[in-house]
Structure formats: structure tokens, C-alpha cells
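Whiteboard transcription, Tuesday session. T.W. wrote the C-alpha cells on the left side:
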């Protein structure tokens, strides 16, 4: 049986004091390298969003697949939610896809010829 961690009064007081001293602005300027995470995901703006439903253990898992429309092998898969009803899962997946897509009408398509698949 797991026991809850116990903090003594001095440690608790130190944690509260440290939290209260923290501020959102600490008078230092940011560096350009701190925004690299935004540049690394800039390609997500030019992606086609495809919803994917997987039936597993009595539930429908909804994933969104973000694939670059010029480089389809550059993709990202994100698990969104799980639903027990198929109809609700279909509706939710369509809503999430439209919300996440840059092109909400769905005109960005992935062309099979760009995949360079060899069926040997």
C-alpha cells in the first residue's frame, strides 16, 4: 500500500515562500533560442489533417494525423479522445479535424505519388 508523502512544517513554509517570490517577469530579456520550439513546429501550418478512429477494447480511439501536403512522410499523430459510441466518435472526430485544420474545407489532400512507395 502506497503512503502519502509527508512534508514537515519547515519544508512546507519554504515551498510557499518560494512560490510567492516567483513572478512572471524577472527583468531579464529573452533569447532568440527560446523560440526554437515554435520554429520547429511551423510546418504544422501547411498540413492536411486526417481523422483516424481505431476500435480497441470496446472503445473508439480518435487520433488526428497531421501530414504535410508536399512531404507526406513528414507527419505527426496525436491522440485526442476515446468514445464508447461509434456515432459520437465519428461526430467528434469530424469536429476535431475541422477545428485543427488550417484549411477547414478539407481541400488540402495528400497525393499518393509523393509517397514514393515501392510495392516489391
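and on the right, the sequence the group agreed on:
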Amino acid at each position: 500500500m502506497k503512503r502519502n508523502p509527508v512534508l514537515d512544517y519547515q519544508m512546507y513554509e519554504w515551498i510557499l515562500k518560494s512560490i510567492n517570490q516567483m513572478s512572471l517577469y524577472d527583468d531579464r530579456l529573452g533569447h532568440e533560442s527560446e523560440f526554437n520550439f515554435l520554429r520547429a513546429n511551423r510546418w504544422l501550418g501547411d498540413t492536411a489533417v486526417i481523422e483516424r478512429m481505431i476500435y480497441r477494447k470496446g472503445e473508439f480511439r480518435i487520433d488526428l494525423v497531421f501530414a504535410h501536403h508536399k512531404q507526406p512522410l513528414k507527419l505527426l499523430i496525436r491522440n485526442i479522445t476515446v468514445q464508447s459510441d461509434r456515432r459520437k466518435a465519428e461526430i467528434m472526430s469530424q469536429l476535431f479535424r475541422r477545428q485543427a485544420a488550417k484549411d477547414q474545407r478539407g481541400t488540402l489532400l495528400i497525393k499518393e505519388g509523393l509517397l514514393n512507395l515501392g510495392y516489391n
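Someone added at the bottom: The first strand starts at residue 47 and ends at 56.
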